[in-house]
Design a protein that fits this description.
Elements (H helix, E strand, L loop, with lengths): L1 H19 L3 H4 L7 H22 L16 H4 L5 H11 L2 E6 L2 E6 L2 H10 L1 H4 L6 H6 L13 H14 L2 H24 L2 H4 L2 E2 H18 L9 H18 L4 H5 L8 H33 L8 H10 L5 H25 L9 H18 E4 L11 E3 L4 E3 L4 E6 L3
Antiparallel strand pairs: 1-2, 3-7, 4-7, 5-6
The structure holds protoporphyrin IX containing FE (HEM).
Length: 408
């Protein structure tokens, strides 16, 4: 009812204003400001005001009072991290509502209620919320991670399970993982400076993880941190993460009216995504396609992408889906495991955890067994201050750690 009232007020106002605009020059000629844009904004503000009041009278959960157009966005800013949400739950209870512009965000913090949302009613809440930027990075859901929970998701998940998410894969590759980890220990041992000055360990672990995942995916690896292909791959992926997880585009995402101002940002995303997918395709996927074609019937599937290409040849998915699986693994597998290594912890409810946990456990134990790890000379302790993104909390300044070899 309130919704209807706000709509009719909106239309009455807009009609009145459209009638007034031609007379604007005569009626308000004594004022020096341009009135037409202001007049056009009035009905919108009134609409949003009545709209938000009418929403409060329904059965929506409680929450902080919101203002028209912006909702609660100005109150929470770009600081939507778990600590702020936990402190708000103290005030508003285990289910509360935040309005972020035109979007309603229900925050559930009680474990039983969270179980209801994630399990009992999992089908309704199964899809991840998409936004304008994720639509670009997933080709409108042609991938697996951000696609709508349904038939396409099920098919992609099934196709990805065999080459990535089984115990067999863990057994098949664990020797290779250990080889890559031993190379890290070897590099740390041979570098004298690492004992005193320390190194940003993330960089070496990043090369290790890329090699682990790219060997599993493409049977390919990078020579060193200076390998031009490695530099390009990491640049593409970190720019993708920066653009997708930045808070910079929230204004256009939360307030559709402001979306035209986002065009420059969205074009940067589109440009990056097309160059990035071309990079994966030209340097990795196409190479495997050629090897498979040359071997013909005799080809022995020897890495994950062979399985995926095979699914494409059987007509289950298309070439775009193949590329988006590569895109998903680059983001979901590599950066996440790297962040977790820096924290030395892991989250659950992810199919890739079957690989991530043994990889994490192995590398952490190899480092602990071989080195005394401490803050570099002149520093009291390792800096572990946090930095929040849209989806994760990571270490703000990649830690410099000194590695003193343990002589057995
Ligand atoms: C320690 C490292 C990792 C962490 C902390 C992590 C964390 C997560 C989280 C929190 C989710 C969302 C789960 C949900 O929505 O219920 C997720 C989903 C996902 N992860 Fe991981 N992950 C890690 C490693 C990996 C690895 C190694 C792979 C691949 C080999 C992977 C592939 C995926 C995929 C494909 C999804 C989407 C699943 C779906 O939509 O069905 N992850 N991960």
């Amino acid at each position: 009812m309130g919704h209807l009232a706000s709509k009719s007020i909106f239309y009455t106002l807009i009609t009145t204003i459209l009638i007034l605009i031609p007379f604007n020059k005569f009626l308000f000629s004594h004022l020096s400001i341009p009135l037409t844009p202001i007049l056009l904004l009035v009905p919108l503000i009134v609409y949003y005001f009545f709209h938000s009041i009418s929403n409060h009278s329904t059965t929506l959960p409680p929450g902080p009072l919101s203002i028209p157009i912006f909702g609660n966005w100005l109150q929470v800013g770009n600081d939507l991290n778990h600590r702020l949400l936990a402190s708000m739950a103290q005030t508003y209870g285990p289910v509360f509502l935040l309005k972020l512009g035109s979007k309603n965000l229900a925050v559930v913090s009680n474990p039983e209620l969270a179980n209801q949302v994630l399990h009992t009613q999992g089908v309704e809440f199964g899809s991840r919320p998409r936004n304008v930027v994720f639509d670009i990075f997933t080709g409108n859901g042609q991938d697996m991670v951000f696609t709508i929970y349904g038939d396409h998701w099920r098919k992609m998940r099934r196709i990805m399970t065999l080459p990535f998410f089984t115990n067999k894969v863990v057994h098949q590759y664990s020797d290779m993982w250990e080889d890559e980890m031993d190379l890290v220990v070897h590099d740390l041992n041979k570098n004298e400076e690492v004992r005193t000055k320390g190194i940003v360990i993330r960089k070496r672990l990043q090369l290790m993880l890329y090699n682990i995942m790219y060997r599993m995916m493409f049977d390919a690896k990078f020579e060193s941190q200076e390998d031009p292909l490695f530099i390009e791959a990491t640049k593409f992926n970190s720019e993708r993460s920066r653009l997708a997880q930045s808070f910079d585009y929230n204004y256009g995402d939360f307030i559709p009216l402001l979306r035209p101002f986002l065009n420059g940002y969205l074009n940067r995303c589109r440009d990056l995504q097309s160059r990035r997918l071309a990079f994966f395709n030209n340097y990795f996927v196409e190479k495997r396609r050629k090897i498979m074609a040359a071997n013909g019937e005799k080809h022995k599937i020897s890495c994950a992408i062979d399985h995926i290409i095979d699914a494409q040849m059987k007509g289950e998915i298309n070439a775009e889906n193949v590329l988006y699986i590569v895109e998903n693994i680059n983001v979901a597998a590599i950066e996440t495991t790297l962040w977790s290594m820096e924290w030395a912890i892991a989250e659950r409810s992810c199919p890739g955890i079957i690989l991530a946990l043994p990889i994490l456990g192995l590398i952490i134990s190899k480092l602990v067994c071989n080195f005394e790890m401490r803050a570099p000379l002149g520093m009291e302790k390792i800096d572990v201050s946090e930095k929040g993104g849209q989806f994760s909390l990571h270490i703000a300044n990649h830690s410099t750690v000194a590695f003193e070899p343990i002589i057995a």
